[in-house]
Amino acid sequence: MQATCAGKTVMVRAYADRLSFIHNAEVVGTHRRQFGRDKTVFDPWHYLDVLKYKPGALRNGAPFVSWDLPVPLQQTRTLLSDRCDGDRQFVGILAAVPTHGAARPSHSPLRNCRNRERKLEDQNQEFRPTLTL
Predict the structure, then answer these.
(1) Which of 57, 78, 124, 128 sits at a 20 to 30 Å CA gap from 12?
(2) Does residue 107 lie within any of the structural domains?
(3) Does residue 98 lie within any of the structural domains?
(4) d(CA 47, CA 1)
(5) Structural domain containing residue 109
């Protein structure tokens, strides 16, 4: 369920195939039912509000360790992981997904970044001074 409901009383409705969590007459989470013992199931999207305040949790937080992201988002995450503020930048991208949807491969942030890098390389080559004696 959503991290905004942490510490609050919620009602759980158990169905044969799913669990629904309700707070103030609003469904705040639904999970596919898991049978067996000692299993922990996370939906990383429910922790998006937490990531806004603690973007470093993206690297080591239990909900995010084996997060199966769409390919363009995974590529973007890999690209940004080398930057000092990459986690914060990636959380900003993730925050836009619920509103705008996941990036399609033709609009991949990674592709846009590579295009920008190529343009900079081209500009550097074009303006490279040469000495002739």
Answers:
(1) 57
(2) yes
(3) yes
(4) 9
(5) 69-133
Look-up of token digits 């900003």? 92
Return the closest-CA partner of residue 57 out of 38, 70, 42, 71.
42
- Tens digits of per-residue pLDDT, 38-65? 888 788 888 888 888 888 888 888 888 8
> Under 8 Å CB-to-CB from 43, ≥6 apart: which residues?
29, 31, 63
How many domains would you assign to the chain?
1
> Which spans in 6-47 are helix H?
none
Query: What is the distance between the alpha carbons of residues 90 and 76, in angstroms, rounded to a whole number?
Result: 8
- Reference 2, options 38, 44, 35; nearest CA is 44
Instruction: Determine the residue type at 96.
Output: A
Cα–Cα–Cα angle for 16, 21, 47, rounded to 5 degrees: 120
The tokens describing 41, both together, are 């199931």
pLDDT of residue 7 exceeding 50: yes
The first and second tokens of residue 2, run together, are 């959503």
Per the structure block, which two tokens stand in for 63? 């909900």
| CA–CA distance, 36 with 66 (Å, rounded to integer) | 20
Nearest CA among 9, 10, 31 for reference residue 20: 31
